[in-house]
Each structure stands twice: as structure tokens, then as C-alpha cells.
Amino acid sequence: MFDINGWELLLLGLLAIVILGPERLPEYAAKFGKFVRQARTMADRAKQQLKDEMGPEFSDVDWRAYDPRQYDPRKIVRDALASPPEDYEPAPVVDKPVSAPKWHDPTVPTPWDDEAT
């Protein structure tokens, strides 16, 4: 939850002993334990309330499938480019020569539509 490993937790405990002292440490440890229990109870109640309000149809949803951290954009692009879609049909080959494009004659004024702008 807080991404604290064992050494960091040990360091925090030693720091609490030094700062609070051995006289006040049990009192603050009890307060911290009470706070953790209250936070856990509140989280459980909120989770239960959410389940009750959403109804039974949402109990079967696999929420991990919607986690954006599991998607790698590089893999998605690689998979999309690796194989054509199932309904892909190549364009037919046309043997007719392609006509040259008609280029604009610089002596003719450019067409302008007054109503377009």
C-alpha cells in the first residue's frame, strides 16, 4: 500500500523510538493501531455499500481486465502490424495506366468560392 520494505519499516520504528521516547511510544502505537482498524472498517463498509448499490450484475465483472497497466502500446502496435485483419481483402490489380494529373495552369486564376469563407 505505501511501498515500504522491511528495512524502511525498521528505520521508521527506530526513528519513532528516538523521537517519541520509550515513555510515549506505547500510547502512540495504540493510537496508530486504532486508526488503522478504523480505516480498515471504513474501507470495508465503503466496499460493501458500493456492492449493494451496484447490484448483483456487477459481481461477475473481472475488473483486472480493465486495468490500463496491463496494456503495452508497443505490443498492441506490433500485433496490429504483424497480421492483416480477418476481413482483409487485397485490392484488385488494375492493368489500366494511371492518367497524369491535371496541373494548374498559372495563367488561369485560381477558383474562389465567396460563400465558403
Automatic annotation (TrEMBL):
Principal location: membrane
Gene3D superfamilies given in the database record: 1.20.5.3310
Gene: tatB
Keyword annotations: Cell membrane, Membrane, Protein transport, Translocation, Transmembrane, Transmembrane helix, Transport
Record carries keyword Membrane: yes
NCBIfam families in the record: tatB (TIGR01410)
Region (Disordered), start-end ranges: 77-117
Pfam families linked to this entry: TatA_B_E
Record membrane topology: Single-pass membrane protein
Protein name: Sec-independent protein translocase protein TatB
Subcellular location: Membrane
Signal peptide: none
